[in-house]
Amino acid sequence: MTLWSAQEAAVATGGRITADWQASGVSIDTRTLRPGDLFVALSAARDGHEFVVQALARGAAAAMVSRIPEGVQPDAPLLIVEDVQAGLEALGRAGRARARAQVVAVTGSVGKTSTKEMLRDVLAHQGRSHAAEASYNNHWGVPLTLARMPADAEFAVIEIGMNHPGEIAPLARMARPHVALITTVAAAHLEAFENIEGIAREKACIFEGLEPGGVAVINADLEVTPILRAAAERLAGRVISFGAAPGAHHRLMKVELHERATVGHARAWRTPLVYKVGVPGRHFALNALAVLAVVRVLELDRAVAMADLAGWSPPAGRGTREELVLDLANDGISIDLIDDAFNANPASMAAALEVLAAARPRDGVGRVSRGRRIAILGDMLELGVREQALHAELATLPEIAAIDEIHCVGSRMRALWEVLPEVRRGRWAETPEALAEQAHRLIDAGDVVLVKGSKGSRVSLVVEALRRAARSAEKGNG
Question: Residues forming the annotated binding site for ATP?
Fold first, then answer.
């Protein structure tokens, strides 16, 4: 199916085409490019023009460029624009303008990608839906998602993120959502903001992109909720709230954490709701309630949505749980791994530790007779001048008392390690590589192991080491 013809793309971007072509997709990466994609030669860590020849050889329908790269054949299909980033943004705006989809935009300090994925799954069973495959939420991710949107999509979910002030509003205006959702506001990216109130004001800028009469969905439980509400009432046609606070339109009354699921008890106006999410975590129950609020705004089938949420699981690295078998010859010789190594700030760290504290290890199956709850924590990044204190304050969380060992990775996380009770203090390592080398010695059969940290902390290397240990055990028993 044709997503963009050469003529449509030229009109959208104001560019010049060198040949006729039809593109079935849009790509910025030759490693994931599919035959028929329009390759967009963005300049990031490397100049995308260096990969145009490779992209065309791999079957790209054409390439969007600002100059003709060396080695490109004279008759190669190109879309030549003045600036490639601006060209992608123009293509994204055109994709949004021609779409008839109801658009939902999602932002938040914690949970925006997981909530976007929940919405993707729920909406996909109620109409033709579109959302980014990954966490494409920045200055190139949002226009790329819009440029990839099929013209006949009925729903679209656009994730919008930020690192600095002034980033959300232009992306929201590009997305032009009918519904804008803020999952929560927490201490993240504090190095770019004076305080959490500044973060709230930036998040609230998502409402500046709302279509006329659009709906704002906000978290009712936050100290900064008044900031969100004031912006929503000024910019939205209607404001819907969710959370545990009295007066929330979708009010979470109780959460039950189970081994492999979470059950939420809520009220939507006068309607009682009991719903399940296929992964443990109070934060997932709250995000699912926000999704149900969006479902109501869009006038969709709530019962179908609740059935979809029951089977939902998060993307890799965002709280996924898996069994790693350590000995195929013996039943139960395994650990449960909670992989949450993609992102971290104080709020998401507390949520993950709550999940670990509620988990049930298995006794009597390993070298240590009692199964343990083990946390392996990497640095939380971009927290500003209070970063050391925010790391140390994790030791005051009530969930810490239920965790047997806490291993720490990185210079910032040393602040936590130094104030932990000695009985819970595991190992500290300056680098993830150093702890990854020891990973197989930190675990035992029956343990539940949480690995969490900011992506830049690279604590995911420990996750990989644990998986390698399990594969090595499989080979040894094979």
Answer: 108-114
Q: What is the pLDDT of residues 117-165, one digit of tens each?
A: 999 999 999 999 999 877 889 999 999 999 999 999 999 999 999 888 9
Predicted local confidence at residue 303, as pLDDT: 96
Q: Edge-to-edge strand order for the sheet containing 37-40?
A: 16-17, 78-80, 62-65, 37-40, 25-27
Tell me the DSSP string of 1-28.
--SEEHHHHHHHHT-EESS--EESEEES
Number of domains in the chain: 3
Classify residue 82 as exposed, middle or buried by CB count within 10 Å of its CB (0-12, 13-18, 19+): exposed
Residues 384 and 306 in one domain: no
Q: Counting every residue, how long is the chain?
A: 478
Q: What is the pLDDT of residue 170?
A: 97
Query: What global pTM score does this model have?
Result: 0.85
Report the CATH number at residue 279: 3.40.1190.10
Give the integer Cα–Cα distance in Å for 277 and 254.
14
* CA–CA separation, 368 and 223 (whole Å): 44
**Residues in contact with 260: Cβ distance below 8 Å, sequence separation at least 6, in sequence order:** 278, 279, 280, 321
Query: How does pLDDT run across 419-428, given as a tens digit for each residue?
Result: 999 999 999 9
Q: How far apart are CA 393 and CA 147, in angstroms?
A: 43
pLDDT at residue 385, rounded to an integer: 86
Binding site as annotated, residues: 108-114
The closest alpha carbon to 160, from 406, 26, 143, belongs to: 143
DSSP 242: E
| Nearest Cα residue to 38 out of 15, 304, 344 | 15
